[in-house]
User: Fold this.
Amino acid sequence: MSLPRHFRALTAAAVATVLTLGTAQLAAGAPPAPTSASAVTSAAPLLPTDEQLRAALLTAAEIGPDFTEVPAGPDSSPEAGASPVAGCDALRALLNRDPSGASAQGPHQEVQFDGPDGTPMITESLSAEEAARLDADFATVGSAFADCHSITFTDNTGAAVTFSATPIALGDRAGAPAVRLDGNLAGVRLNGYLGIERLGDVALAYGYFQRDSDDSQLASLYYRAAVAKAERTLGVQAGVTTAPGSAV
Assistant:
């Protein structure tokens, strides 16, 4: 039995928007990037390119033979199934933001994988931007994850599911913002995890949704794999707030 169509629309919309949390759109009033000649000459090294970010993402081969990569398209975009969000002001504000402008803020790459019959669903993204903006973004995300206790998604068919939200240590670094979501739709148990990690001037964002299970083992396993590959490929340790080669 595959994941219900309307729930796939809900989770796809939610994850697609959450996984752009590394962009400057999240930080209301974030300081603008330096534009003066003196600021440019003293700036940190250039941001990673889209190609470098893409190479740092997990692949279907690395996740396992039961997973397939889902091509980017209208089915994975918020516009494909509008998902009004209610119940948590901070997280709702993040989820309702339009991620379509993310790439305009800086390099950004993302990928989605589906398991057998569409579950579990794993989404990962990498977004690069100037350090001060990332500082503000992480403060915003951390507060939203910590303060949210319940959130409801409703798709364009009227189907709704309310998730309880619980902060969790998803990976090895306790300070990385992450939240566990638990809900029930028409008697089907639904469980998800959202996390974001800092690697210098790159934000790694991760989503994992599953049906008929509330076991966090695989969600944590794939999150750790995503962080480990990004660390190796980008040459920076998780939790570090300065880019490789930045002046101290």
Q: What stands out?
A: The first strand starts at residue 68 and ends at 69. Residues 44 and 246 are 5 Å apart (CA to CA). Residues 217-234 form the longest helix (18 residues). The two ends are 54 Å apart (CA to CA).
